[in-house]
Design goal:
mainly alpha
């Protein structure tokens, strides 16, 4: 999502979307802390007053960026799953898809750290208000889509008997925790210092554990 370059006059009819585009660019550059309504307005080429006609404040703009980032995360997972090698065996195919989804999750975090951090930030609504900006109902949290992709892959493993059905709910949370925790360790933890080759090995080892941990005994 590209923003209008700073210094250019705004001529498009959808100012709200243009401001979100600019805010997404800001988050891409520096994470959620970089998202400021006045700066988004400056980049689009309008006054802060014009921007405040579309957003109550920074929290609402940041929430729009969070929704965009969550969708982008899920799309990264889906693209990785689409690239997964095919397999005639249903069990092998399900395991390959689960690993590929996790690879797309971690890959998004490493390729787009600013947006990844924005996807899990906590925007604050105006004091004493709920999220229903400018009369619009709040959108469902798209972060559930990433979780749903992992859930669906684990359901496929359950259907072929690779996961005991009673264990699947716990496996869902464990799989998400594994890929999310690894992403944070690689971005902000001690694993951030790993050389690229070693980092790739750690990612693949973690995904192998996710797959093996989901298997029935």
């Amino acid at each position: 999502m590209a923003a209008i370059s700073g210094g250019k006059s705004y001529h498009h009819g959808d100012l709200r979307n243009a401001l979100i585009c600019a805010a997404v660019d800001l988050a891409t550059e520096g994470g959620p802390d970089r998202v400021v309504l006045r700066e988004a307005a400056r980049r689009v080429g309008v006054s802060p007053t014009a921007a405040y006609r579309h957003f109550d404040g920074r929290g609402e703009l940041l929430r729009a960026v969070k929704i965009h980032a969550q969708r982008a995360l899920a799309e990264s997972m889906e693209r990785a799953a689409d690239r997964a090698p095919g397999a005639d065996d249903a069990t092998v195919a399900a395991e390959l898809r689960l690993a590929a989804l996790g690879r797309g999750y971690v890959g998004f975090a490493l390729d787009q750290p600013g947006l990844y951090r924005a996807a899990f930030c906590t925007p604050r609504p105006p004091c004493g208000e709920e999220w229903a900006p400018l009369g619009r109902p709040p959108e469902p949290e798209p972060e559930i889509r990433a979780f749903t992709l992992l859930t669906d892959a684990l359901r496929a493993l359950a259907r072929v008997g690779r996961i005991p059905r009673e264990a699947r709910p716990a496996a869902e949370a464990a799989a998400w925790s594994a890929v999310h925790g690894l992403s944070l360790l690689l971005l902000d933890g001690p694993l951030r210092r790993l050389p690229e080759r070693r980092r790739a090995d750690v990612v693949e080892s973690t995904l192998a554990m996710v797959v093996s941990g989901a298997r029935a005994d």
